[in-house]
Structure formats: C-alpha cells, structure tokens
Amino acid sequence: QVQLVESGGGLVQPGGSLRLACAASGVSFSIYDMGWYRQAPGKQRELVARITSGGRTNYAEPLKGRFTISRDSAKNTVYLQMNSLKPEDTAVYYCNAIHPVTMTEYWGQGTQVTVSS
Do the bridges between strand 10-12 and strand 33-39 make them parallel or antiparallel, or are there none, so unpaired? Predict the structure, then answer.
C-alpha cells in the first residue's frame, strides 16, 4: 500500500521558515519523480516544486529563491525548505509522487501551513 505522509506544517510568522517532509512507503521511491503542491482556500491546487528521480528540480516561478526541494533516497523522503514566508504562502501543502513512465501518481493527505503574525 502506497503512503505519502507529510509533516512539518504549522503556524509561522511572516519572514520565518519551515521545512516540510514527505515520507514515502510502498513505492520504489528512487524511481519516482516527487513534488510539492499547495492549495489555498478558494483556489486551485498549484505546483510549488518538483524533483526528478535524477535530482533535477523545477519551481513555480514566483517561489524561486525562497523555496528549495530536495530528496533523500536513503530515507525515502522529500523535503521542502521554505524561507522568507509570506501570508500568501498560507495553504495546505501536498506531497505528490509520479512514476515517470506509467504516470501513476499518488498524493499525501496534506499539511497545513499558516503564515500570520
């Protein structure tokens, strides 16, 4: 059974930092492309960042320079380091895994990030 379990969300003040983690089980983590998406209230889910099995990354343009995605295959975990957080970063953040050939994908349950003073 495939599971993606996010952690690390919470309440942070503007300008602060958080690191999200997504632990994967039930999949061959090393061959999956991994990503983070977010969904704010009343808005569509949007891409935050992706990292391929080979380590290539891409980011939503407005988030470049503030967010960093990384992966640790030894821990079957993908991370999202978020710096200089803004109130508009408030959203539920979801982990995503997608097989690069079959395009089978899985989602985590999401973790809430709230940026507020």
Answer: unpaired
Residue type at 85 in one-letter notation: L
pLDDT digits (tens, 9 = 90+) for 48-104: 999 999 999 999 999 999 999 999 999 999 999 999 999 999 999 999 999 999 999
The answer to whether residues 51 and 63 touch, using CB atoms and an 8 Å cutoff, is no
Integer Cα distance of 115 and 65 in angstroms: 18
- Paired with 47 in beta bridges are 37
Q: Residue 30 gets which letter from DSSP? A: G
State whether the Cα torsion 47-53-58-59 is positive or negative: positive
Q: Could you tell me which residues are beta bridge partners of residue 64?
A: 67
What does the DSSP assignment read for 34-88? EEEEEE-TTS--EEEEEE-TT--EEE-GGGBTTEEEEEETTTTEEEEEE-S--GG
